[in-house]
Structure formats: C-alpha cells, structure tokens
Amino acid sequence: MRPRIPLRKRLLVRLLVATVLIALCSVGATAWLAVETTTRAIQEEQGQDLADDMRILARLSGYAATHPDWNGVAPTVRALSKKMGRRIALTTSDRTLIADSAAHGTSLPPRAAASVDPLHTDTYTEAGAQLSGLDPRVVGPYRLTADESALLKEIATQQQRCLSRLGLESTVVTTPSGRPALVEPSGTASSEYAAEKCGNGKLQSLTGTERNALQDLTARVHACLAKDGLTADDSLFFAVDTTQQSLASRYIPGPYYKRGPATAVQTGETCTGDALRAQLDPYVAPVAELFLGGGDTTAPRFDVSPANKAKVVGAAAAVLALTVLVTAVVATRLVRPLRALTEAAQQPPELHVRVPVRTRDETGILAEAFNDLADRRERMEAQRKAMVSDIAHELRSPLTNIRGWLEVTRDGFVEADPALLGSLHEEAMVLQRVIDDLQDLAAADAGTLRLHREPVRVEDLFDQVAAAYRVTADTAGVVLLTKADGTLWLDADPVRMRQVLGNLVSNALRHTPVDGSVTLTAWREGDRAVLTVTDTGTGIAPEDLPHVFERFWRADQSRSRRTGGSGLGLSIVRDLAAAHSGTVEAASTPGTGSTFTLRLPDSPAPDAG
Fold first, then answer.
1. How many CA atoms lie within 13 A of 465 on its CB side?
2. Is 132 a member of any domain?
3. Mean pLDDT per segment of 10 residues, for the chain of length 609 residues?
4. CA distances for 104 relative to 85, 97, 99, 604, angstroms
5. Are residues 440 and 455 in the same domain?
6. Could you tell me if 465 and 582 lie in one domain?
7. HSE-up of residue 200 (Cα within 13 Å, Cβ side)
8. Whole-model pTM?
9. Residue 290: inside a domain
10. Four-point Cα dihedral 252, 256, 261, 264, nearest 10
11. CB contact at 8 A, 544 and 555
12. How many domains does the chain have?
C-alpha cells in the first residue's frame, strides 16, 4: 500500500496556502496604497492650506505696512476671501472686530491663526524679513522723493550698462522705499560688484530723506543707550547696503558701541531695533489678530481612531475569511476528481477501472483521457492474449506434424522416403515463415527495422513481383496484370517493397477464383506515388474491413495456415509502409473484389537529380 501524501504536500493545502498568501499580499498592498494615498492627499491639502494661509497673511501684512490704520481694509478682506474660498476675519487684540468676510453675527474660531504685525514678522510672511523680522514694505520716513528716486535710477542704469559691457547681465529693480538695486538673473544683488568695477559710490550714498530719517533714528538710539550708561558716535549710519530690502539691515552702522564688551554690543543692537520700530510705528496699522475658517470648532482633521482601526482590521479579516472559504470550496471540487483518478489508478491492472466524468473542465478532460487509456489498455491486453494464443496455434500445428512423423519413422512404422521428407520440409518452411514474419513485426515495433534505400523504378518492381508469382497465378487460373507509369520512382528498400507487394499479391491470389484477375497499378498523385493491388475475388465484408491489418486475423476463421496464410502478412505490409513514410488502406465490395492502396513519397529519377 502506498504511503499517504503528507499534509503539507497536498494540493488542497497548497492551494489554500497560496490563496492566503495572495490574499494577505493583496490586502496589505491595498491597505498600504490606501494609507499612502490618503496620507499624501492630506499632506498636499494641508500644504495647500498652509500656502493659502501664508498668502493671506502676507497680503494683510503688506496692507498694514503701507497704511497707518485698518480703515478701508474691508474690501481687501472680502476680495481675499472670495479668491481663497476661506472665511477671513480681523480683530484687535481684545477681539474687537475690524473686518469679516462672513455674515454679521457669525462666531469666530476658537483660536487666531496668526497675528498681523509688520514690525514683528517672520521669514514666511515676506521675503527679506529673515534677519530683522521687519516687513520690508514698511518704509515710513525713509520713502525717497520722486527726484531722489529718479536720480538713483539713472545711476543704477549707468552701472547696469557698465556691467553689460563686462559680460554681466543685471536688472534694475525698485525697492518699496523707492531706492533702486541691481539684481542678477539668479536673483542676487550685484551692487557690491558694481560699486567695485563700475560704480563711483553714488548708488550707495545716503539721500537727504534718508539722512534726515537716520538722524532721528540716531537720536532715539542715543537716548536708549544713555539709559544703560553707554555712549556712541554722533553719526551711527554712514552708507547704504543695497543688497538688503529691509530697513533694519539696509543702513550700515559705524563702529560706535562695537568697540565695547559683548554686552554693550548686544545692548546697542537691541536699542537700534527698538528705536527703528518706534520710529516706524506711526506709519503702520496696529497689531491685529487673523482668524481663518468659521464656526465654534476647528476644521476636522483626518485621524485613524480606534473605531476606524477596528473597521479596517475587520474588513481585512472579512476579506481574508471569504477568500479562504471560497478557495476551500473550489479546491475541494478540484481535488475530488483527482482523488477518484488516484483511487482508480491504484486498482489492480486487470480490473481496468474507469472513473465517472462529471465535468467538462480540465479534470473532466483528464478523466476522459484516463478512461480512453483504460479502454486501449484493455484492448491491447485482449490483443496480446489473442496474439499469444494465435502464435502458439501457428507453431503447434507444424511442430506436431513434424514430431509425429519423426516418431513413427523412428519406431520403424514408416520409411523415410522422399515424399515424407518433402512433407517434413514443407512443415519446417511454414515454421520458418511464421518466425520470419514475427521477427519482422518485432523489429518494426522496436523501431529497429533496417531499410537499405535506393532509387527504385515502380515499373521494374511490378515486373519482378509479377515474375515471382506468375507460376502461382497460372496454377490458380488467375490472370496477373501490371500497369505502371514508366517515369514513377521510389526511394525505398527494393527487397522490402517486393515483400510488401508480394504479400498483397499472394493474399489476392488466394481469394480470387479461377478466371479472375489480379492487377497491379501505379500512378502519381501530387508528391505521392499511388500503388494498388486489385483483385476480382470474393471481397471482404464491411464489418471485417477495419480488422484486415490486425495480426493473426482472418476473415474466414476456418481457413488454415496453408490456405489462409499465417495471418501476419497484412500487418507486415502496414508496418513496412509506415517505415517508408507511407500508408496502406483497404477497400472492398463483397462478391466483386478488393483493392489495397499504397501511398508512398515519390522520388525523382536518378538522372534528374
């Protein structure tokens, strides 16, 4: 008894494991993709919201930097709200409403989004506020007059032309205070290089407006320093750094307190910043609180709560369970026919067990193929048994005759005269023919049948066969005729082809009565040579026609080996035709005669090659 298949190697288990792995990978990939996509979408949405918030804050900070109060800001707030699709509200520090894009009475969000203070801003509000925290659009008393701005622009244009001659491209831009600056295509200012190569220092010199404003700033700084017991030079600022857009870093201070200890330097920098903001304060709007959105609560954020996590896990588990269930059902249906096939194949061979065919899928086709194989095996077994019986019968009869005559001759009952010896020789020849035929069939079955091919003319082949059987035909009173195309050639073994035609002619002569005829005919049909042996004998019954090429088969079972041959001749004809890449078939009409047709590949004449 064969050992049972291990559980891990069973098809059902493998299908289940493969399906579970696929399901897990699918669920995991889908979950990862969903989370990744959702996270990215949320990040993009949050980034867009942050960018919109910064644009709103920058716009309102610019308004505050250029207006001394918030009067008239309402149209700007409404326009921004419409453009951004957000609710925008401005209030004072004590939440007194300044402007609101929402309807009157709409409550404010719980927390302010930002404070609008151009004197204390950050990097994201406006470029140029990185160092001082001062919105560069705040200019106050530092705004140049039209004449001053025009004069500086002319100087900047001259420097631009000079740089162009040196192969340096630049652009003249105007800062919020009206002071021009040279900027390279990369966006960096080129005034330092221009002052060195093309400038005369006029673009970096102070104008009258700037000098007056800086004198006021210097007085404020001195007052602040005096509180801490520090003093400084009368002139704190002596040049302009046009690379800076913010007032806090544009005007270059003198050495004054920087000669002192570090605490004095820090105090001086603090006093300068505070004095500048105090100087600009009257020119900017008061600090305001910016509110975005609306209602009593903030906008909901995406959050994987425990309940949502439970839903995700539950959905994944349900998908997995459903996949396993469906796979188990399908796999069971697939394995059931295979088990039936295995059980049938394990039965004893002599039972020839079949399996029922219940489906038309691959397993059903496999079951049909198994049943066909069982049918063929049963037929082959029956043929094998019949063949063994026939061989024993064919060999037993001549051996019995030879043994009997030898025994009576040995005992002296019969003289060993020439007639007896001729009879014994005839019986030995019968045995020889049966053995030779069996040997040819065995060689054909084993694929060891040797052919010595050479060009053979069909007409000559017919003449040789007719000459060999002429005496037999004349003795039987049968006319033997040949009709062949003289240009028809074969690439064949002449000995084997004479054997094929001889078997067919011999078989036809045995079944043709007196005054009948046997005709050998040959013609070309496409690339095939067609050879026929036609007789006018008794013919073959339709039910017997499919069996004529079977071994040891005779239409008339009462015929002996002498009158009906060994029963192997037509089987040899079929195998030799196949060895020559040809076919043989039989057609017959009872009472009229039979025709055996050979179809073989033709060959060109030797002189035409």
1. 31
2. no
3. 61 73 75 68 61 85 90 91 88 90 86 88 61 80 90 87 82 86 65 59 82 86 81 68 68 58 74 86 92 55 57 73 78 77 82 79 77 83 70 72 84 82 78 73 70 91 91 92 90 88 90 93 93 93 84 55 59 87 92 93 76
4. 18, 10, 10, 110
5. no
6. yes
7. 6
8. 0.44
9. no
10. -80
11. yes
12. 4
Residues 159 and 77 in one domain: no
Euclidean distance between the first and final Cα of the chain, in Å?
64
CATH number of the domain bearing residue 557: 3.30.565.10
Range of the domain at 46: 1-85+304-346
- Judged by phi (left if over 0) then psi (alpha if -120 to 50, else beta), residue 112 lies in beta
- Kindly state whether residues 440 and 500 are assigned to the same domain: no
CATH number of the domain encompassing residue 407: 1.10.287.130
Verify that 164 and 243 share a domain, yes or no: yes
Same domain, 167 and 273: yes
Backbone angles phi, psi at 353, to 5 degrees: -70, 140
Shortest CA distance to 345 belongs to which of 380, 371, 384, 383? 371
Q: What is the DSSP string of 273-339?
A: HHHHHHHHGGGSPPPEEEEES-SSSPPP-----HHHHHHHHHHHHHHHHHHHHHHHHHHHHHHHHHH
CA distance linking residue 467 with residue 513, whole number of Å: 20
At which residue do the structure tokens 């004479």 appear? 498
Q: How far apart are CA 131 and CA 371, in angstroms?
A: 92
Q: What distance in Å separates the CA atoms of residue 546 and residue 559, rounded to the nearest whole number?
A: 19
- Phi/psi for 537 (5° steps) reads -85, -155
Q: For the segment 411-462, what is each residue's pLDDT rounded down to a tens digit?
A: 888 888 887 788 778 778 767 767 776 777 677 666 777 788 899 999 999 9
DSSP classification of residue 89 = E
* Owner of token pair 């043709």: 512
Shared-domain flag, residues 391 and 459: no
C-alpha distances (whole Å) from 233 to each of 11, 63, 219, 222, 289 are 97, 36, 11, 9, 40
Final residue of a structural domain among 283, 318, 333 = 283
Do residues 399 and 458 share a domain?
no
User: Is residue 520 a contact partner of residue 464, using CB atoms and an 8 Å limit?
Assistant: no
Q: In this structure, what are the phi and psi dihedrals at residue 246, rounded to the nearest 5 degrees?
A: -85, 140
Residue 225 lies in a domain: yes
Closest residue by Cα to residue 485 from 455, 525, 458, 519: 458
Last residue of a domain, one of 426, 445, 464: 445
